[in-house]
Structures are given as C-alpha cells and as structure tokens.
Design goal:
single chain; mainly alpha
Length: 76
C-alpha cells in the first residue's frame, strides 16, 4: 500500500520529472519510518505499564486500528 500510494499520487502530476518524485518518495519513506518508530516506542511503554496480560490487549487494539484504516483505504 505504501508503494501504491506514492505511485498513484505521483502519476497524477502532469509532466512530473524524476527528481521531484524521488524527493517525494524519500520524504514519504522518512515520514513513515518516523511514525513507525513513534508507535513502536509508545506500544512498548503501554505494554510495560499494563503487564503480561496487557500484551494481548495492546495487540487487539493495534489490530483493530489497523483493520479500521485498511477498511477505509479499501472501501472508500
């Protein structure tokens, strides 16, 4: 979905050259990496705070959030 997002957005730019598209992909990669690191750090803190049973609860919450975003991306 990450690659498809960039391809579709980049293909809508009429007369787009390779340098702006490479810059866009690089910026998108950095933003996604930063978001991944932030969510990972927050998840570890929540899991440590909730204890051993909190792992299942946290996994369920993240699966629910991911499913909701995927549903919106596919249906909308």
């Amino acid at each position: 979905m990450f690659a498809l997002h960039g391809y579709l957005l980049g293909s809508t730019i009429v007369g787009a050259e390779s340098n702006p598209l490479i810059g866009y992909f690089f910026g998108l990669f950095l933003a996604q990496a930063a978001l991944l690191l932030l969510v990972t750090a927050v998840s570890h803190r929540i899991i440590n705070w909730l204890g051993a049973n909190g792992l299942l609860l946290t996994a369920g919450v993240w699966i629910g959030i991911g499913s909701a975003f995927s549903w919106v991306a596919l249906v909308d």
